[in-house]
Amino acid sequence: MELGHQAFGGGQDCTFETILRRHELTDPVLWKLAEAVHEADLEDDRYDAPDAPGLDAILRGLSMTPSTTRRSSPSRAPCSTGSTSTTAVPCCSASLPPDHMTTATLPPEPAVTPPDERSRVSADDISAPDATASPPSDAAPDTRAGADVVPFRSALRAWFLISLQTFGGPAGQIAVMQRALVDEHRWISQGRFLHALSYCMLLPGPEAHQLAIYVGWLLNGRRGGLAAGVLFVLPGVASLLALSALYVALADTTVVAALFTGLAAAVVAIVAQAVVRVAGRALRNRVLVGVAVASFVSLAVFGVPFPIVLAAAALIGWYGKRNPELARPPAHKEATDGPEPLIRDDTLHTARPSTARTIRSLGLGVIVWLAPVAAVAALTGIGSVYTSQGLFFSGTALITFGGAYAVLAFVAQQAVQTFGWVTSADMVRGLALAETTPGPLIIVVQFVAFLGAYANPGTLSPWVAGVLASLLVSWVTFVPSFLFIFLGAPYIERLRHNTGLTAALSGITAAVVGVIANLGLFFAISTLFSRTISLDDGPLALQLPDLSSLRPVPAVLVAIASILLFVLRWPVLRVLGSCAVLGLGAGLLLPGLT
Question: Tens of pLDDT along 64-92?
Fold first, then answer.
């Protein structure tokens, strides 16, 4: 071995670094190893030769638990230039920052206990790290089915706090989970988090809700997934239920009508922003642009059913899987360095998929999902509004690809034109209310159900009917997300590099751009014009605005909301609040124009 110290860049390099530089070795693992040796050297004076502690640290490294509390070392002196050791791996640069060990790298600063304290290191110090700290680097966390990676109470507390912050649609909800679970608690790595998200996007339903269930399942098994999923939607369900009741009771008053005029104008701009954002991420080439345009024309001009549009887009993507632009998954920004997470990139859940388990889970899940609908049908009749809503929204739960905006065009069309549960103005106002509550935006279907049942209560009280319908529709909308994750999670890793599925998802995502644009057109016409003209001639199925019925106040408010969102880049909640105040002022001052 070549020994000796040399100066590079004004500082002292020890033997190991000298060798790496001289032979132009750039492997990051070697440099991490050198960093680990040096850090141990600086804080351990067990041996006379300064190189020997590094070897000692390496030999003991895999059996040491990284300390969760590092000792500060304000002054870091360079290695001695006169000492050598023929049996030691020498130290290296003294100024590199510390890092935690992963399965691919070695720790730059293992927790080295001083000589007089080594005998007092207990088993608890090694086998029982804090729940929010990094696990021992020589063993992955226990990911057996049913095992808790973190204490269940700690997970419940974290999910509850997350549920109170889930405003701003799926982007905001995913950002909240990213900050809490990846950056703060360090319970799951960035790569593992994005891996879960990418496959949740393949499923129908709200992807942020499914991501919460998935991560909860990884952390605490099925009970963790159940707790995470329930807590994620509970505040939104409770909030929108209360707002639906207030809307029914007070919607005819001038004050409330003026408030909703401002909120509806904000929603038009918010949907336009969603179109721009999704298009920027999804339309990577001319094929995908063509899919988006075709989906918009199919829906807006020809009235093609929403499921057919999505199925056609998926087929186009699937058959175009040889195109690398279609088969390439979206790029994600890497997470910043930090303490090692409990669930690392290379940690996989050990639950093994089996046909018997899948059949049992599927059977039980379908029974749990549809049992309330069957009970309502038995008690109120097949033709009741409750049964109709339960069946309809059970179906929409299976086609909600691409987020809430994508399916809301279909829901709005059916709820307004086919079933008559709400008016187009009610639909826009309901979306505005859903934007102001935490949880997935698809919760707006609860508002639709409340109004529809309140207007057609049957033998029940209107208030009881509204609450019953809201809870039933919430149940059939969100339960499938649990079923999809618990059924599919053990199989997900097998699909990780499936280019066909990735290409199909690219096609669906492109179609979603056209779907959201169609939704925006629907909301804009409903908000800006008092009357519309139906054009249903042959293959055409259009709703055109009556230009003479333009409403000036909503038009001005839409322009203001667009400036706030696109130019000033205000957050959604601030835009909604500002437009509500402006709408209230206009309604009180100019009641005939709103």
Answer: 444 333 333 333 333 333 433 333 333 33
